Amino acid sequence: MKIALLGYGKMGQIIEKFALERGHEIVLTISIDNQEDLTRQNLKAADVAIDFSTPDSVLQNINACFDANVPIVVGTTGWYGKLQEVKNDCDSSNNTLLYGSNFSIGVNLFFKINQALAKLMNNYPAYDVQVEEIHHTQKLDAPSGTAITIAEGIVDNIERKSEWLNEVVGTNVDVFAKPEQLLIESHRIENIPGTHTVIYSSEVDEIEIKHTAHSRAGFALGAVVAAEWLEDKKGFFSITDIFE
């Protein structure tokens, strides 16, 4: 496949490495230094685009791909408030988009385990549940998109929780969760690629499930695999569709 990379920071460069190893060709790279190259003509040279840019530029990139009728894989988070609007635009213009808060194969298996465990814990109300996420200090959003997906997987499947709320540790802002609220505790520590933990705690014991990323490589490989999966498809998809 011929691939356009929208966002050419650390993630974009690792994606390029995996794409070339799997026999693909990079025909366009867009960074903050060459935004003027994001044209309909340049995009149409690609079979698919992969976006790991920023929350400020991702919607512009999606619209540019729709205008060029080029399928797009979106790994950037921070735009999900516009999700339904983008889906409507995708469907009405007969375009193709796949998005995900995390493209790691291991994390997506973790999502499935998390949902199944939440359903099981409906039978055991003595356990309260909490989510903990740890990332590097350069991460722009808190909680992470992955932590939000984990929290929604719990809220959607366990009857005693109705919503989540976030506490960023170290900001001197105290957060007190009500019994029906699920707490996401966010930590920012130097040189941590990403750790997510779900903790069920009772008076007598504790259950934890944890995913630890050793590097960004798993996210990058998953994005290339998602682009390959998208070939010859039309419509609006999420990363979970790959694992159904």
Question: What topology emerges from the helices and strands here?
Answer:
Layout: E1 2-6, H1 10-21, E2 25-30, H2 40-43, E3 48-51, H3 58-68, E4 72-74, H4 83-92, E5 96-99, H5 105-120, E6 128-135, H6 145-155, E7 163-168, E8 181-188, E9 195-201, E10 206-212, H7 217-230, E11 235-238
Radius of gyration using CA atoms only: 19 Å
Helix count, per DSSP? 7
Segments where pLDDT lies below 50 for 5+ residues? none
Please trace the helix and strand order, writing H or E for each element: EHEHEHEHEHEHEEEEHE
Bin the helical content: 25-40%
Structural account:
The chain contains 7 helices and 11 strands. It has helices at residues 10-21, 40-43, 58-68, 83-92, 105-120, 145-155, 217-230; strands at residues 2-6, 25-30, 48-51, 72-74, 96-99, 128-135, 163-168, 181-188, 195-201, 206-212, 235-238. It is of the alpha/beta class and 244 residues long. The strands form 2 sheets. The chain has a 6-stranded parallel beta sheet, sandwiched between helices. It has a 5-stranded mixed beta sheet with strand order 7-8-6-9-10, with helices on one face. The chain is 32% helix and 25% strand. Helix 4 links the parallel strand 4 and strand 5 (96-99).
